[in-house]
Amino acid sequence: MITFHIERFADVYAEMYPLLVEHYDEISQHKEQEIPLDPQAQVYQAREDSGNLLMVIARDSGRIIGYFVAIIAPALHYQSCLTCSPDIFYVQQEYRRGGAAMGMFQFVEAELRRRGVKAWMVGSKVAHDVTKLFGHLGFAPFEEIHVKWLGD
Questions:
Q1: Cα Rg for the chain, rounded, in angstroms?
Q2: Distances 118 to 67, 95, 115 between C-alpha atoms, Å
Q3: Quick check: is 15 in a domain?
Q4: Domain residues for 109?
Q5: How confident is the model at residue 96, as a pLDDT?
């Protein structure tokens, strides 16, 4: 049975790291630019210590099968608007058709509502499009982000 829980970064980071590597290997455009996976664990910990980090972990029989990580803070231009900004989310491939992602996002939404969040932002990679899922969850297109790699 798949369950969703809010977990502390310090308690779950080592356990979830292999999934971060799997995620990086599957879809990272940074990898294509030869930029290694190198999370700033101390920054995640500092954001958790300040109350701004949300980590939702999806588990099947106790084993991590997905995660949703975001920053919750007032928007820089709209301080009265508590905003959830995306960091990263992932569900292992074998769980993608079984509703795990939908369930995880619904769990996140309930928690964001409980915390009084007014705006929830999410993003989808062009090469790994999940906008159909976002549409089912009630999200609407809001902004487009572009990248220009400036490395060697």
A1: 16
A2: 22, 29, 9
A3: yes
A4: 2-136
A5: 92
**Contact at 8 Å (CB) between 80 and 74?**
yes
Kindly tell me if the per-residue pLDDT of 152 is higher than 80.
no
Residue 95 lies in a domain: yes
Give the whole-angstrom CA distance, residue 48 versus residue 75.
Answer: 17
Location of structure tokens 């491939």: 93
CATH code of the domain containing 108: 3.40.630.30
Cβ atoms 53, 71 nearer than 8 A: yes
Name the pTM for this structure. Answer: 0.94
How many distinct structural domains can be found in the chain? 1
* CB neighbour class for 52 (10 Å; exposed up to 12, middle 13-18, buried from 19): middle
CB-based burial label for 101 (10 Å; 0-12, 13-18, 19+):
buried
pLDDT in tens, 72-94: 999 999 999 999 999 999 999 99
